[in-house]
Design goal:
The structure is a single chain. By secondary structure, the protein is α/β, with parallel strands linked by helices. Helix content is about 40%, strand content about 15%. It has eleven helices and eleven strands. The chain is globular, with a radius of gyration of 20 Å. The structure holds manganese (II) ion. Manganese (II) ion (MN) binds next to loops.
């Protein structure tokens, strides 16, 4: 039983270091720091650290710890929400005594001494809450702050309970989490209020996307356009899902030019697109994934694949 093994490992180690993926989103922070809070209040005598490069727009969720290399000696390391080892933020994750992976992405890279992956979960934050439910008779405690973090992770990864990954369990856990004391209104404002320039960039996106007769969508944001809106590549990534309501669109791709390469963001309403992302050294979920390419000719190759996937797609949208 993997949850029991993870709980035993937690009880065994005095130092526990939590990691998550690079370019963090609310579920990365929520699962990492939500578990961090649970462990801090459950085992006040242990040393618990949440590490990684901070993302300014997510400071409202949690500020992270900076630790020396020697803290990893004889530490338990838990990596949350991170499918493959290259994407772990702070590559010291493998310098502990024992490594645990907790994730909801396809388990292509089953790293760690203990590996708990459930692709049926809406988010890793949902798994962390499930872990708490499992362990609450065995020493795990929950507080308002952990509940706020896990709730933020679930809301983030389900697109506010909209994506098909949202299950009965997701709603049940969310219902239990909102019994804790935190302001949902404030959390939603912190998560979804956008700067004026990003709203206007969204206007550009809506004006300039292209759609093929087969339902393949494409949007190119070069550095010049981003600069004219005072926007960064990471800002543009936030806008990818917004095309989802275009009628007839099956799958779509944002090509976002960065200084040295082109960030590729895939979304789909049906055709499987993470297989395409993998061909271009990326990965992710079947209907939401990403990759990085280095030329515009590669972008054409990506679009040819997406076009094919849309043409072959027989299912409903
Ligand atoms: Mn996630």
């Amino acid at each position: 039983m993997i949850k029991e093994e993870i709980l035993q490992a937690i009880k065994e180690y005095d130092t526990i270091i939590l990691h998550r993926h690079v370019r963090p989103d609310p579920d990365a922070y929520g699962s990492q720091c939500g578990l961090g809070e649970i462990l801090k209040i459950s085992f006040p005598e242990k040393h618990i650290y949440c590490v990684g490069q901070e993302e300014e727009s997510l400071h409202f969720l949690k500020r992270l710890d900076k630790i020396e290399d020697q803290v990893y000696d004889n530490a338990l390391v838990i990596v949350c929400d991170t499918a493959n080892q290259e994407r772990v933020c702070d590559q010291r994750y493998n310098q502990g005594a024992k490594l645990v992976k907790i994730d909801h992405h396809p388990n292509d890279d089953a790293y760690g001494n203990l590996c708990w992956v459930d692709t049926g979960a809406s988010s890793t934050s949902e798994l962390i809450y499930e872990f708490y439910l499992y362990g609450k008779e065995k020493g795990l405690k929950m507080n308002d702050e952990a509940a706020r973090l896990l709730y933020a992770g679930i809301v983030g990864d389900t697109g506010r309970f909209l994506y098909p990954s949202t299950t009965e369990k997701t709603f049940k856990y969310a219902g239990e989490l909102i019994e804790y004391n935190f302001s949902r209104t404030q959390l939603y404002n912190q998560m979804y209020d956008m700067e004026e320039n990003i709203i206007r960039l969204n206007g550009y996106v809506m004006q300039h996307f292209e759609i093929s007769p087969a339902g393949a969508g494409k949007l190119v944001l070069d550095q010049e356009t981003l600069a004219s809106y005072g926007a960064k590549a990471s800002d543009a990534s936030q806008l990818v899902s917004n095309l989802g309501s275009v009628k007839g669109l099956k799958a779509w791709v944002f090509f976002i030019e960065e200084e040295n390469d082109i960030r590729v963001r895939f979304r789909s309403k049906g055709p499987i697109i993470n297989t395409i992302a993998k061909k271009f050294n990326g990965g992710g979920h079947p209907l939401a994934s990403g990759a990085t390419i280095s030329s515009w000719s590669e972008a054409e190759a990506v679009m040819a694949e997406v076009e094919k996937a849309c043409q072959n797609y027989q299912g409903s949208l």
